[in-house]
Design a protein that fits this description.
The chain is an alpha/beta fold. Helix content is 32%, strand content 23%. Bound molecules: the ligand NCc1[nH]cc(CCC(=O)O)c1CC(=O)O.
């Protein structure tokens, strides 16, 4: 089959999203030097809206317009942060993920202009984050700190921090790497203290289902271990039916020897309830591991914890 000679890549237009597209273009140029690429930038409702994401109808705020451009045939490939792709409903009909790229750092970082770590911050320090996952875990480890709502892309949040709208930020290490701002990091939080979101640090390449030319052209960029990890993580989220406002955290790890494990936690927003499960796949396939860990959390009462949070 003849291969695509031009791939149009649709992406959000934030600096982080455009950096992600550049990574895909670089990797594709190395793998398939004959293929040209073009970038189709779009602004999503999640980018425009600076209020509570749940008030937007939440789901897919960062992906809806990207999906529409792909499905309309105005682009051939979409690059998504898997973290932002809803798992409580199917992917948009007619689209598939052709590859998940090699995973970046999954941890969150603290950014404090004076270089303080969380432990060093005085009581009442205002941490800018609107993420229920981060708020709940900070309430457990640092109840003396105060979370204040903070939205906008990572560059905008750094500007708001510098303008004094908060005293410190929590942002994904991978995102800071992508926008070239790791110089601002004062502390990297271990996953035990700040369990990452499902899909952290992974970029997915989404294509139209029937577009075998593009699917075949980009499939070679995928990482087989990350495919297993994301399959387990997203099945967990699917079974838990987490919404955009759910404090659900977790990560799978494919070990070098081939073993796969999945840890996941569900928090109440005040951090007073913590459900925790960790299992090895053994003979189970990745999706069944995701189901098994989700069922373990449901047995501990996850349904009630998730459903009592408004969304
Ligand atoms: N919701 C925005 C978003 N989507 C993905 C990342 C981080 C990069 C990633 O995990 O792929 C971020 C920023 C952040 O949470 O700090």
């Amino acid at each position: 089959m003849s291969s695509a000679d031009l791939i149009r890549i649709v992406s959000r237009s934030s600096p982080m999203a455009l950096a992600q597209v550049e990574r895909v273009r670089t990797e594709l140029a190395a793998l398939r030097p004959g293929i040209r690429t073009e970038v189709v930038p779009v602004t999503t409702s999640g980018d425009r809206w600076m209020g509570d994401l749940s008030k937007l109808g939440g789901k897919g705020a960062f992906t809806k317009e990207v999906d529409a451009t792909l499905l309309a045939g105005e682009a051939d490939l979409a690059v998504h942060c898997i973290k932002d792709v809803p798992a409580d409903r199917p992917l948009p009909a007619g689209t598939v993920f052709a590859a998940y790229l090699k995973r970046d750092d999954i941890r969150d970082a603290v950014i404090h202009p004076g270089g303080l770590t969380l432990d060093e911050m005085p009581a009442g320090t205002r941490i800018g984050t609107s993420s229920v996952r981060r708020v709940a875990q900070l309430a457990i480890t640092h109840p003396e700190l105060e979370c204040v709502p903070m939205r906008g892309n990572a560059n905008r949040r750094l500007e708001k921090l510098d303008a004094g709208e908060c005293d410190a930020l929590l942002l994904a290490v991978s995102g800071l790497e992508r926008i070239g701002r790791t110089d601002r990091i004062s502390e990297i939080l271990p996953v035990d203290a700040m369990c990452p979101p499902i899909g952290a640090g992974v970029l997915g390449l989404q294509c139209r289902e029937g577009d075998t030319e593009t699917i075949e052209a980009v499939a070679g960029l995928g990482d087989a271990d990350v495919w297993k990890e994301i399959t387990a993580e997203r099945m967990l989220l699917h079974v838990l039916q987490g919404h955009c406002n759910s404090p659900i955290a977790g990560y799978a790890r494919a070990e070098r020897d081939g073993r796969l494990s999945l840890r996941a936690r569900v928090f109440s927003p005040d951090g007073k309830t913590v459900l925790d499960a960790h299992e090895w796949a053994g003979p189970l396939d990745p999706a069944t591991l995701g189901t098994s860990v989700a069922v373990a959390l449901l047995r501990q009462g996850a349904r009630e914890v998730i459903d009592t949070i408004p969304h």
